[in-house]
């Protein structure tokens, strides 16, 4: 599993979870959030909206309590909505295109390529291809009453 955060102000380092590590609520909070993503995010701003999906580790009571500041709570987040997450609707696709330009033979090579391409990705791509579209996508989702909205874009 790979985890990142993006905003118009910058992006987090790419975090790769080792194979076999179980991503439960405790590991998500204590390692991915507390040790990695939140310190990375805070280097850009003290104000941000934290968005995640409904995965059990994300919606666990202790995780929600940890994220008491500007956080879109699980009860307000539309179900099945990867099309509202800039990483999901655009950034992963751009990264995937770059990573798989050449054949990859091993897991170590894949990890290396993902890391290299993430470091090479220009912030303007994240801003133009993903972040600037978020508000438009959110409005379309509201217009569709939380349903499918790609046809409205």
Summarize the structure.
48% of the residues lie in helices and 5% in strands. By secondary structure, it is mainly α.
What does this structure look like?
With 153 residues, the chain is mainly α. It has a single domain, classed as Ribonuclease H-like superfamily/Ribonuclease H (Nucleotidyltransferase, domain 5), CATH 3.30.420.10. It is built from seven helices and four strands. The strands form two sheets. A two-stranded antiparallel ribbon has the order 1-4. A two-stranded antiparallel sheet has the order 2-3. A hairpin with a 2-residue loop joins strand 2 and strand 3 (10-11).
Notable traits:
single chain, 153 residues, mainly alpha, two-stranded antiparallel ribbon, 7 helices
Q: Strand fraction band?
A: 5-15%
For the record, the CATH class is: Alpha Beta
- The strand line-up of the biggest sheet is 1-4
- Give the rounded overall mean pLDDT: 84
Q: What is the 3D shape?
A: globular
What does the radius of gyration come to?
16 Å
List the total number of helices: 7
Low-confidence spans? none
Please give the CATH architecture: 2-Layer Sandwich
Could you tell me the CATH topology label.
Answer: Nucleotidyltransferase, domain 5
Helix share of residues?
40-55%
Class computed from helices, strands and strand pairing: mainly alpha
How many structural domains does the protein architecture include?
1
Taking the alpha carbons of the first and last residues, their distance comes to 30 Å
What is the name of the CATH superfamily?
A: Ribonuclease H-like superfamily/Ribonuclease H
Helix and strand run: EEEEHHHHHHH
How would a textbook summarize the main sheet?
2 strands, antiparallel
Strand tally: 4
């Amino acid at each position: 599993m790979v985890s990142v955060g993006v905003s118009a102000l910058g992006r987090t380092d790419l975090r790769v979870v080792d194979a076999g590590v179980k991503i439960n609520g405790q590991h998500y909070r204590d390692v991915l959030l507390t040790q990695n993503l939140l310190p990375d995010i805070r280097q850009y701003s003290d104000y941000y909206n934290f968005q995640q999906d409904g995965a059990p580790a994300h919606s666990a009571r202790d995780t929600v309590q940890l994220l008491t500041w500007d956080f879109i709570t699980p009860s307000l987040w539309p179900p099945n909505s990867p099309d509202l997450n800039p990483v999901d609707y655009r950034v992963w696709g751009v990264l995937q295109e770059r990573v798989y330009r050449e054949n990859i033979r091993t897991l170590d090579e894949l990890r290396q390529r993902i890391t290299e391409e993430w470091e090479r990705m220009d912030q303007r791509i994240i801003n133009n291809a993903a972040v600037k579209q978020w508000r438009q996508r959110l409005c379309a989702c509201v217009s569709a009453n939380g349903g499918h909205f790609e046809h409205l874009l």
